[in-house]
Amino acid sequence: MTTTELTNAFYTAFGPGRAPRCFFAGGRVNLIGEHVDYNGGHVLPCALTMGTWGLLRRRTDDRLRFYSLNFPQLGVLEGTLSAVRFQERNQWTNYVLGMLFALEERGIRLSSGFELLIYGNIPNGSGLSSSASLEVVAGAALRACYDLDVTDVELALLGQRAENGFIGLNSGIMDQFSIALGREESAVFLNTGTLSYEYVPVALGDNVILIMNTCKRRTLADSKYNERRAECEEALKDLQRVLPVKDLAGVGLRAFEENKHHIQNPVARDRAEHVVYECARTIQACQKLRSGDLVSFGRLMNASHDSLRDLYAVSCKELDTLVSEARRCPGVLGARMTGAGFGGCAVAIVNKRNVEAVMDAVGRAYEEKIGHPCAFYVAGIGGGPREL
Ligand code: GLA
How far apart are the C-alpha atoms of 191 and 103, rounded to whole Å? Predict the structure, then answer.
């Protein structure tokens, strides 16, 4: 959709008047470093060129009016600045209200209400962070339209706070951070324990990032996500009785092997093993990407998936099928699930010459085994949030 089309849709939804300002924020795909961002580990995500558009116009009263071109059947949803609270019936607007909640917690109260039109082209529930994208685009629009003194890092933290304190998902910082701080053709190598980060050029040569969508909604994701987090905390507590560490990322491989028997619950032990090894893999993978050793990078991606499947138990039949079918194809350097899991997407590094054949072979095998089609996107790596 063009900005003009979006602006026209805005007038149709909210009526004529002053022109809205138009903003965009991407989605994200994580290359490696999964389920470590709430354990202080490193992650290596990229912002996507797919994302969310937000058009905002300030009002003079305290009313809030929302319209999404993705959910036209919901019509215009309404609220007021003085009653910002989570309610099921607020639907997708809860993510925007969550940003207002997070701002208010910081003592930032808007001087007036607004109208907001949203349009996104990230498939919903696909594990490419459509919700973080919505939070960041809303935050970027509010920052610009109300002259708020908020940095990009703060924007990411506000988004995480919206998830944790308003939506009720104890997610880490990876999604909002990679979207708020994204850079074209680069991955964000982020230390989630300190929030220090570096950009790493995604120089793939003859290869592309292929995203494979199970087209299965991540139904279990939220409850299982919080459960995994609790299991990690349990393992950490046991280890802290014998090791001076503040998070699982701080436990080296050797220290883990020497002390893992202190973790009482075998399930928590497996979860911790995934985290400790995934943290090491991600640091290694980043070095491989920097040195252009994509074959090794691909192998680390494969190891990451196997660990998420066997130790962390966040994969599913659909993701495993995409990954194993992809790995059988010539030209595939590595494949793994990406994001929270339980559905959503997998990501693979594939030689350009083989992409068509891979989509064909994986698509056919997937439909035969799972009973419905999957979808593919060659990922474009985009920049941070911006005004259009
Ligand atoms: C979700 C969360 C992130 C991260 C991933 C798993 O996307 O929002 O914070 O934990 O799952 O790596």
Answer: 24
